Amino acid sequence: MSGAAKPVEEGLTEQERIEIDAWLTRFPDSAEGKRSAVIPALHIVQHNSGGWLPRARMDAVAEYLELAPTRVYEVATFYGMFDVEPVGRHKVNICTNISCMLRGSNEIVEYAEKKLGIRLGETTSDGRITLKREEECLAACAGAPMMLVDEVYYTELTPEKIDQILDELE
Amino acid sequence: MSAVVENTEKVSIEIDGQTVEVPKGASIIAVADELGIDIPRFCYHSKLSAPANCRMCLVDVEMGGRPVPKPLPACITTVADGMVVRTASERALKAQQGVMEFLLINHPLDCPICDQGGECELQDLALGYGRSVSRFVEGKRVVKDENLGPLIATEMTRCIHCTRCVRFLDEIAGTSELGAMHRGEHTEIGTLVGDGVHSELSGNIIDLCPVGALTSRPYRFTARAWEMTSHAGIAPHDCLGSNVELHQLRGRIKRVVPRDNEAVNECWISDRDRFSYEGAVSENRLLAPLLRDGDQWHEVDWQTALEAVANALRDTVDAHGAEAVGSLISPSATLEEMALHSALMRALGSDNIDTRLQRADFRDATSPQGFPGIETDFSELDNQDTVLLIGSYPRQEQPLLNHRLRKAALAGGHVLAINPCGFDWNFDLSQELIAHVAELPAVLAATARELARKKGLEEPAALSAWQTPSSVSADKIEQLAVVLASDGKKTVLSGALVEGHPAGAELRYLGALIAELSGAAYGALTPGANSAGAWLAGALPDRRPDGSAARGLNAQSMLTNPLKAYLLHGIEPEHDCHDPQLAAQAFAAAEHVIALSSWDTPALREQASILLPLAAFGETAGTFVNANGHWQIFGGVGQPLGEARPGWRVLRVLGNILGTPGFDYEAPDQIHAEVKTRAGDAAVARPSVEQAVAAQRASDGMQRVGMPALYGVDALSRHAPALQATDQAQPAVVLLNPSDAVAQGLTEGGKVSVTQGSASQTFAVHPDERVPAGSFWLAGGLSNTAGLGAMIGSATLVAAGTDA
Ligand code: SF4
Ligand code: FES
Ligand code: FES
Fold it and tell me: Least CA distance to A74: which residue of chain B?
């Protein structure tokens, strides 16, 4: 999930600016257009900051896109894929929306929580895994119950599969 | 909304059975409001954008004879020809009731312990549209509170997410400090990062919040809305004179809220206007007349005190002549108080009277034509194409006037500034020229020259007296002149930094010249609430109450040539005089210093010989004349604390004891009427450009630049605890150009000692490149700036180590 390099703690790197600029060309050259680039910009920045968005990094995005920081915080807290608190090295998102729920996601959540000794929204004490809270439909209902681990989908989950997948995470 | 309603094109609609012609493009809710038809709403506010997120305003609409399939939100549905609207049909009511039920799902319904109880929009509408028993049996959510600062209390569990507060801070205050964080049922209004809310207009979100989520912290739990009576008042801090309502219980002001006046403050007030009332119930109030006897102070009754005052004045006149007596009066004293002071001084034979305590340069004479003020109507400031600010930061001086300039800028107008320092503007200036304080006259002269050239006008000969400025490039001046020369509605405004500038008379002359050359209106952002009143009442050394000219000593010369007796009214000299140190020296040398004051302070006890307790804000009736020349009258609401008495009464009795003729007023309106008759149709007058003010050599060396801090402008604000707990009232810091900081070996957080004359004080340093080299910014009116020298003037800076 997180970039291999040391997490960036503040400001924007040259590479990040280039990536954000590339996104900006896809939107109208206006204040609204800049606002549209917040989501891709936050993805870029979160990727290089250990999987979460420290305040200084959100502020840097706000400054770069000429927005009030509050407008960026709103976006960062609105979407489940962004985190504004430190997270573990791996983010585990178990879908609990309708299809997955009908196919037993509640039991999967319970199993994972017990196994890791944490509740949804918490991180293991060794900083290895964060169980994300309230994950909505990830558009893989055909393989329900499913989960997203960092950037990889796992479908048709069973407790055995959970053991195997989670145990393999560094 | 107002812009839309001004549309002259009309459409015809039927609303609740009435057929009306309404402006095209107006929203249904705006039309209904005009007609007095109540549509329930939470998120809609006529001065804010309409996100239509609460859904409370759903109404039944029919177009082209066919009902629209679903009820529509009245706040964003615009009227169309032939539209039929039913705001209270069965379908509309059902929709409104449904929305209400949802809004109450997570609301704690804790009205008995909520400050908003009795004046809550949710409570009121729940009464009309809610069910008597809730069908929701599940658990309600609870939201953790965030500390927004000393002015606003929060109870965010009550929030219904209307986002009025968010939109106000975004659209009106321009600070965007609050946001809607998280999503859905987890939505929370807050800052996320815990920075709090610091806008100078923040208190308005208390009024906007339809529920008890945001309430006034100082007022919290001190009264119930229905026990208080409401009285019209005028805010006493700036030359706008915002219209307010004072809420009073058993003779005490409990809180201050805005009173709508589109021509002045619209529906807002600044935090200074809202929370300063606390100063009137401060524990520092002076409660009885005090006489000094050596180092001792004795409480006496009014008769004894006033006789002592009369004797002091008579003795001084007998021994040293009437010219040895002078009055220094707050520019926020009432018109009536100023008129009586003026009459009293003149009866004694002295013309030494002034309210221009912050002024540094008196070379320009008072205009005989009219009073200082703003020629452009406040409401017209919103529509200016170009505004040039000279030596001004109105966000701090007149927060709501700044709001109008912000509107002009957002609408595409050019707001330009020529200042000795950069500031935290809450809108984008089109151009900002920052020059060393001593070069301001040269920058203005260069601008005037360039402007004359652009306009093809002859360059006024007097302009050659100022050299070409070195700190601002010719290009920048040219760009500024281009904007000033273009067509449109234009106003030149001069502010507090002109008032306190050692070459202020030059700046006023040059500012008026720029206005003349560009065809702009002129305005002075005058100090206090009643500088215009001082002119009208003749409380000036060169203008008597009857309008005749005189040659008394002004506020500065009364201190540079010490007098034998001073009469002070409503001032704290260690903060309110342009040069507090000079004032302290003059008072120390005087035989009598008689201070009428609402507060008992160590400095007054040190400097005065007689202290007379003055009624404070809300306790006295009177008039303030604002910078547009509105005579705004207010009544006395609360009972003066202790033995304090309204100024006009004290002065009347003093006049009687002294045998001053004509001092038999029964009520302040008689004094008001007298001044009004004499004033005739006097209006705002701009500084004369007939006679040039000569250029004088500026002083060399390091210069202090400053103006009174946001909550340091007058005694009332300085004694208001909640205002004093804000960030803006924290001890002053020296802002210094990084190059000067390096030269002095100073870094962020280091300490520097500032010396002016014999006074020295140590401050924390903050390097800031917006301050020109060779000068430093140090505000006035703050706890640690008392008693220093001139707010704009020479000073020495010496590094003072890293520890205080
Ligand atoms: S705090 Fe008040 S004004 Fe702000 S969103 Fe909530 S209910 Fe609306
Ligand atoms: S409900 Fe789980 S992926 Fe769609
Ligand atoms: S007032 Fe119309 S949706 Fe809120």
Answer: B181
